[in-house]
Amino acid sequence: MLTIDLYNQKGEKNGTLEASETIFGQKVNNDLMHQALVREQANRRLGMIAHTKTKGEVSGTGKKPFKQKHTGRARQGSMRNPQHPGGGIALGPRNNRNYSRMMPKKQRRLALFSALTVKFKEGKVLALENYENDKAKTKAFVEMLHKLPIDKDVLVVLSEKNELIQKSSRNVPFAKALLVNYLNISDLQKYDHVLFVKDAVKKMEEVFLK
């Protein structure tokens, strides 16, 4: 049985949480993780600002500029061809290109489980019992994080919306809070530690193991 260390707000260890072997004990597949990471990056990519017109889009007549034979010149079909001044651009940049990639749902989940397994084996997955404060204060949230065994940046995973944590972590450069549903390869690669708020571990099983 896999377990995740559970800490309270004061940084004191307060037991453990049972973790799913399907999620945190998966066989690591590096190729699948790379494929999922490339897909996420490609799907976030925006179209180019630069945009050129093809010969079918530039203004101008489609009339043949001169007769086919007996002129001593190379034959031409239209003045809108790329070789003529004012003609269309061949193979130029277009702002309507779609960079998105497809990946089966099962493969995406296996890639996510592989990434979580890597974090778990490295001892960089932990859980927080609860976080309470009178107001959403960045300073108080950072002080709480420093009490936990976290030496670098951290990804805080929530089971549901929590304005106190989300607002408190908004301006922390080394921390990011997100819901279980939005857990992704890119963030797992970027942030060194993963901190699950207690109910988020159970929520993961409900979301990803249906």
Could you give me the name of the CATH homologous superfamily of the largest domain?
Answer: Ribosomal protein L4/L1
CATH fold-level label of the largest domain: Ribosomal Protein L4, Chain: A
User: What's the mean pLDDT score?
Assistant: 92
- Largest sheet data: 6 strands, mixed
Low-confidence stretches: none
Q: Give the proportion of residues in helices.
A: 25-40%
* Domains (count): 2
Total beta strand runs:
6
Radius of gyration: 27 Å
Elements, N to C (H/E): EEHHHEHEHEHEH
As laid out across the biggest beta sheet, the strand order is 2-1-3-6-4-5
Structure description:
The chain is of the alpha/beta class. It folds into two domains: 2-43 and 103-208, Ribosomal Protein L4, Chain: A (3-Layer(aba) Sandwich); 46-98, no CATH class. It is 33% helix and 15% strand. The protein has seven helices and six strands, in the order ββαααβαβαβαβα. It has helices spanning 21-24, 30-44, 105-121, 138-147, 163-169, 185-190, 199-208; strands at 2-7, 13-19, 125-128, 154-158, 175-179, 193-197. It has a six-stranded mixed sheet, with helices on both faces. A hairpin with a 5-residue loop joins strand 1 (2-7) and strand 2. Helix 2 packs across helix 3 and helix 4 (138-147) packs across helix 5 (163-169). The longest helix has 17 residues, at 105-121. The model has no long low-confidence stretch (mean pLDDT 92).
